[in-house]
């Protein structure tokens, strides 16, 4: 089984500038390369500034995991002066800041309700060249259905709200508990993702692999139209069909003979 480190080694071609520039948009590549090569933190080749907006189930699950991998993580919240949150962030080894602090990061993670995205992106500052990881699911109040689909998606709407950023739909098809602990014995849970830019997709996949998932690309951002109903499937199984939170939806491969 491949470990996250193996996966990153498999992506070593990303440092071959010629091949890299030939296969991705130059603008995003120019943004991504220096950051991929930055040498600080535990994961010396891949340390990034990550602004996780929202300190609910998802934000609390993701932030400390990435901090353990050497990234500089800021939890961006509405009340950064709250003493309890400050204490919690310190225990996670992450910074606490206002939503506007996300604009200072290279990667912005939307761990907020979809209904809050428009307001939050307005407060986050200049998003040019940023990588936005969209974890949101456009669900109704009682989590029984999606509020949009199947001819549009939250992922695409977010890309329209942030046209100068690169949006990757990811981390929406697993419960927060899997983000903290995706260990199912000898099995790594699949994390599907979708985005239009190969370099952005690769970084998103690496960040998911660091959490312990097996990232699998579904295609362009438009595929969010499939990932959001897949998340709804997970939610229905978890909440209405008695599966609880200790399961994942997986790609299972036949062993090679
Ligand atoms: N829960 C899961 O297992 C799971 C899994 C995959 C994807 N998702 C998706 O991920 C997103 C977050 O889910 P969650 O379970 O973490 O939600 P949650 O526990 O309700 O937390 C939501 C967070 O968003 C913040 N927030 C809400 N409105 C905001 C605004 N206008 N400005 C700034 N922050 C705002 C809240 O801040 P306050 O603390 O200040 O209220 C809270 O910290 C949702 O879109 C959900 O569909 C959830």
UniProtKB/TrEMBL annotation:
Cleavable signal peptide: none
Keywords, in A-Z order: Oxidoreductase
Segments forming domain Pyrroline-5-carboxylate reductase catalytic N-terminal: 49-138
Gene3D superfamilies attached to this UniProt entry: NAD(P)-binding Rossmann-like Domain (3.40.50.720)
Entries under InterPro entries matching the protein: NAD(P)-bd_dom_sf (IPR036291), P5C_Rdtase_cat_N (IPR028939), STEAP_metalloreductase (IPR051267)
GO molecular function, one term: oxidoreductase activity
Entry-linked PANTHER family: DUDULIN-RELATED, REDUCTASE
Protein name: Putative transmemembrane reductase oxidoreductase protein
């Amino acid at each position: 089984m491949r470990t996250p480190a193996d996966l990153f080694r498999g992506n070593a071609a990303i440092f071959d500038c010629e091949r890299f520039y030939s296969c991705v948009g130059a603008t995003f590549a120019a943004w991504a390369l220096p950051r991929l090569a930055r040498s600080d933190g535990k994961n010396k080749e891949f340390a990034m500034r990550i602004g996780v907006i929202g300190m609910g189930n998802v934000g609390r699950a993701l932030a400390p995991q990435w901090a353990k991998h050497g990234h500089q993580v800021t939890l961006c919240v509405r009340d950064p002066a709250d003493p309890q949150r400050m204490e919690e962030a310190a225990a996670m080894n992450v910074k606490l800041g206002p939503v506007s602090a996300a604009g200072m990061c290279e990667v912005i993670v939307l761990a907020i309700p979809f209904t809050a995205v428009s307001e939050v992106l307005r407060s986050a500052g200049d998003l040019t060249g940023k990588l936005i990881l969209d974890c949101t699911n456009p669900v109704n109040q009682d989590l029984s259905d999606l509020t949009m689909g199947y001819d549009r998606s939250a992922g695409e709407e977010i890309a329209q709200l942030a046209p100068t950023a690169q949006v990757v739909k990811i981390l929406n098809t697993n419960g927060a508990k899997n983000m903290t602990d995706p260990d199912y014995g000898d099995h790594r849970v699949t994390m599907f993702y979708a985005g239009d830019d190969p370099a952005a997709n690769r970084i998103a996949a690496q960040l998911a692999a660091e959490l312990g998932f097996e990232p699998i690309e579904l295609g362009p951002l438009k595929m969010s139209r499939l990932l959001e109903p897949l998340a709804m499937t997970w939610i229905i199984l978890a909440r209405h069909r008695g599966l609880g939170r200790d399961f994942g939806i997986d790609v299972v491969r036949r062993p090679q003979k």
